[in-house]
Amino acid sequence: MTSEANKNRTLIAVIGDEDTVTGMLLAGIGSISSELNKEKNFIIIDSKSQDEDIEKAFELYTETRDDIAVLLINQHIAERIRFKVDTFTKAFPAVLEIPSKDHPYDPEKDSILRRVRRLFGE
């Protein structure tokens, strides 16, 4: 991918629980396209959400859309699609696992931290 293609990557996307997404929207990251299908750069996941819906959102933000620079995903939600998160190796968008109000961050589960440890032979 050229740096020219990366110039379009200006948005932060969020896959998270209601509190996380609300906080991020209040911080100003929300974007809804003016196109017909009104694509959003966020999705709220709750206990009723299916793993397939999470996978579709992950694929949309990482594979389909070329305007996403960073994807923030709650770690407990990333656990539900761990295989997808762990096998994603592209530089853009950067996929960062974040804690939520009810689920603290566990560095042992973080895919990026595990890759760094493997690089350093830990």
Automatic annotation (TrEMBL):
Transmembrane segments: none
Any single GO CC term annotated in Swiss-Prot or TrEMBL for this entry: vacuolar proton-transporting V-type ATPase, V1 domain
UniProt membrane topology term: Peripheral membrane protein
Superkingdom as given in the UniProt entry: Eukaryota
GO molecular function list: proton-transporting ATPase activity, rotational mechanism
InterPro entries in alphabetical order: ATPase_V1-cplx_f_g_su, ATPase_V1-cplx_fsu_euk, ATPase_V1_fsu_sf
Entry-linked Pfam families: ATP-synt_F
Compartments where located: Vacuole membrane
Keywords per UniProt: Hydrogen ion transport, Ion transport, Membrane, Transport, Vacuole
Family: Belongs to the V-ATPase F subunit family.
Subunit description: V-ATPase is a heteromultimeric enzyme made up of two complexes: the ATP-hydrolytic V1 complex and the proton translocation V0 complex. V-ATPase is a heteromultimeric enzyme composed of a peripheral catalytic V1 complex (components A to H) attached to an integral membrane V0 proton pore complex (components: a, c, c', c'', d, e, f and VOA1).
Its job: Subunit of the V1 complex of vacuolar(H+)-ATPase (V-ATPase), a multisubunit enzyme composed of a peripheral complex (V1) that hydrolyzes ATP and a membrane integral complex (V0) that translocates protons. V-ATPase is responsible for acidifying and maintaining the pH of intracellular compartments.
Name of this protein: V-type proton ATPase subunit F
Organism of provenance: Pachysolen tannophilus NRRL Y-2460
